[in-house]
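Can anyone check this?
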Amino acid sequence: MAILELARNKKQLVKETEEYLNAIRTNIQLSGENLKIIGITSVQSNEGKSTTSASLAIAYARAGYKTILVDADIRNSVMSGFFRPLSKVTGLTDYLAGTTDLSQGLCDTDVPNLTVIESGKFSPNPTALLQSKNFENLLLTLGRYYDYVIVDCPPLGVVIDAAIIAQKCDAMVLVAEAGNVKRKALRRVKEQLEQTGTPFLGVILNKFDTRMEKYGSYGNYGSYGDYGKK
């Protein structure tokens, strides 16, 4: 089995935000029973969705839960910047295309209890792969062997892939960058997630400057991002 190492510069980031991540993890756990497969998406790129996905998976793992992180953002994966492979690895697209066995894509990490499936090789038709029975079977299988499955999805405001993935998850969470995403766009993506029939747990407000809380504009926007509220 391949080994992935948490990149050094990311270790400090996770440490600094550990308290917030533990609060998010607890809120998800209190949102309902049998919520094991959690999808994370955003409105647009560069809102911190993938960093949040990886950090949340680490938070579950460090709390003692057997956790797997699935990089399903196969159009534009950035997870390779978070985990550094110590040997050659296969990925999600390889498995979904039927070119490799699932066991070859399961990568241990230097974080106890955490396994990662990387996105894999570029695919000319990622939507078809995510709609395949292989992907559904993958998540069902992982849900039987892991306490939590965190799925890093593409931004739903850009491509429809996240809505397809949502139908195969137990719950969805939306990451929004403070001050950089319009409320109208955020509401539209929220409605799209709700239309999938999968429980929508709430919004994680990312890159929020807590020093600005005293100002009304940020205070109002902050209330929109309270996790667990729709």
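Reply from J.R.: I decoded it. The first helix runs from residue 8 to 16.
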